[in-house]
Each structure stands twice: as structure tokens, then as C-alpha cells.
Amino acid sequence: MTEVVAVSSFLIRVLGPLDVFTSDGPKHAGGHHQKKLLAALVLGANHAVTIDHLAEILWGEEAPPSRDNTLQSYVYRLRHLIGPDAILSKDHSYELVVEPDQLDALRFERLVNQAESIRDDPDRSGLLWREALSMWRGDPFGEFGDEDPFRLESLRLVELRLLAMERRLECDIAMDRHEMVVGALEGLVEENPYNEKLWYLLIEALAGSGRRVDSLRAFDRLLEVLAEVGLEPSPALKDLEELVITGGDIHSNRGSAGQRG
What we know:
Distance between the termini: 29 Å
Order of helices and strands: EEEHEHHEEHHHHHHH
Number of helices: 10
């Protein structure tokens, strides 16, 4: 999905490889160190980040003697890319000044909060969950995502993305789109085998699409996965299994399924 830059003069994207969009289209964010500086400023968006801290992120203990001048040069180039007022200099610090529409991670979180506030309306919230998830292009912060200090923020965003995926699939199930979500849920439980909420949704989706035998087989697979680490399924999952066996109303059990948040 191509991002459109309208009111904002630029869009910094970190929900995947770090890059920049401007009103003139996609722009090269510079070499490795310049891109890493932009990523570091994103971490501290709308807060001043000291030059000492930025230098540590870029070079560790091997900062060049001319580090301040080098940083100033990088900042100059970034200002040329996204605008002279986008990066402020003050008190031996730099600050990236962005609105939510100028940073995809902020836009994503705003959409998540909006969707979460109307969870009782699966049609409307489902559209917001889809819009939020469409912004993802890969691992957060790209090449820097596994490095300090980006690792924790990357993990937080990935966890929030998983929550958004759960909520979107929840909306689909609530709107009787059971068969549509089975494939996605089967892939997700393989990637997150100890996430009971995903297993719950898979079992519910299979049962709701008329595949009761497959639904019970999925429950048996969950039992095997949990047994390997000495765990048992939650009471809500056991209740769901009973409803599938007896042909009861599986939707009535969703409120006790241990939903996050």
C-alpha cells in the first residue's frame, strides 16, 4: 500500500525498513549512520535527545574526534530532507518534532487506540484495525531493530501489532466470517504456540464454519503444546471445548476468553 503525503510535508516510516516519504515521493534517508541517527531521533520523538546519547548510539565507545561536527552534518542533511523545522537544536541536544501523521508508528498507535475504543462495533473497529495493520511492511526499524536501543521499542511495536491482528480477527468472527480467518489463525498459532487467545479464536472459527471435528483436533493440538511446558488450558478454553462438543452457543463464551486489555 503506497503511503500518501497530504497535509504533512513528510512521513517517516519505521514499521519496516526505515525510509522517508515527502510531497515529492520517496526519498533516500542517507547512509548507515545518518539513517541510524534518524532512527534514534524517532525513538525520542518530540523530546530532546542529547548529543552524547546520540553519539553513543551511532558509534559506541569509538566516536570520532569530530563527532559533534559529524552529527551536525547529518542533521543538516536530514533537515534538507524533511524540513528545516523538523529537527530542533537546543542545549547540546537535538529534537525531532513530528505530528502523528508524520511518523507511521504514531499513526499506527493512534488507530489502535481509536479501534480499541469502539470494540463493541466490529464493523467500524474492524476497518480501523485493517487500516492500522496495512501500515506494516516488515520488522520495525529494519536493519536496526535487533540493536540497542531499538530492540525494546521494536518488541513493543511487534506485540502491539499482534494485538491488532487478534482484534481484527475477532471482528471478522463476530461478523460471521469464520472460514475467511481460519488460514490466518493457523499461521499465527504456529508462530505463537503459547498464545491461548489465538488458539481460542482458531477453535471458535473452525467450529463457526461447521468444522467441529477440526475444531476439536485444534484443541487437542493445543493440549499437546501446553503439556510440553507443563501447562494446562484456561477454563475459558475448556468451556469452549465443551460448547463445541455439545453444539452450544460458542459466541456466548467469548467474554470469558481471557482477552487482553
